[in-house]
Amino acid sequence: MTRAAGPGVALSATTIVDRALELAEREGAAALSMRRLGRELGVDATAFYRHFRDKDELVLALADRTIESVLDRLRDITPDTGWRSALRRIADAMWQQAQEHPVVFALTFARSTGGPAERQVVEIILRTLQPLGLGAAKTVLLYRLFMDTLLALAGMGCTARTLPPEIAEKDVTAWSRVYAALPHKDFPATHKHAPALIGVTDHEIFMASVDSLITYIESQLA
């Protein structure tokens, strides 16, 4: 018999992931304990082990749920899209995923979920690169280079966003508080570029990296 998860809510893997995602984004990664989630759903924490072997499996399920948003944004990519446009759309979808789910992204950007959504995204990217005719080894290298670079950049941003506010503020103001105040005599290059250092955004860096990756892939074709 399925236990109730609060009034009128059936406990299922989907229900657990839904509530865990809400809890993580509302209160941060520290709130993601089986005990706390049990209180949220009105069940004993042991009930979760019917659906997930452990907390790590649940966290990976959360990650795969957020990857569904990437997949949704890529469903209309076809062979006629062109590989450059396809890669830019994939990158933009990843950026949006990170902005919408920063807590889960920060927890899992270095992980592989192996879940249904991730499997489909991997297939789309490999299918985009395969027609370039570079062979399996080079295609996989380019796939990993593309994904790992963008995951790392987006993951860094999400990690910074999920820091405690007082610590995040120190990082955000470091360029203006520390680097812009360095003496010109000792740090002339840093002093000259301080306004630009303060002004550049994470999204600009991310998109410049996409451009660089596409340029590198073009060089391999040549």
Could you describe the 3D structure shown?
The chain is mainly α. 68% of the residues lie in helices and 0% in strands. The longest helix has 26 residues. The protein has eleven helices and no strands. The N terminus is likely disordered. The chain folds into two domains: 52 residues, Orthogonal Bundle (Arc Repressor Mutant, subunit A), CATH 1.10.10.60; 155 residues, Tetracycline Repressor, domain 2 (Orthogonal Bundle). The termini are far apart.
Q: In CATH terms, what is the fold-level topology of the largest domain?
A: Tetracycline Repressor, domain 2
Report the total helices. 11
Helix content: 55-70%
Class of the largest domain, according to the CATH hierarchy? Mainly Alpha
Poorly predicted regions are 1-5
- As a percent range, the share of strand residues is under 5%
User: Major beta sheet, specifics?
Assistant: none
Instruction: Please name the CATH architecture of the largest domain.
Output: Orthogonal Bundle
What is the quaternary state of this protein? single chain
Query: What value does the Rg take, in angstroms?
Result: 21 Å
Q: Classify the secondary structure makeup into a structural class.
A: mainly alpha
Average pLDDT, to the nearest integer?
93
Order of helices and strands: HHHHHHHHHHH
Q: How many DSSP E strands?
A: 0
* Global shape: flat
Distance between the termini: 62 Å
CATH superfamily of the largest domain: Tetracycline Repressor, domain 2
Number of domains: 2
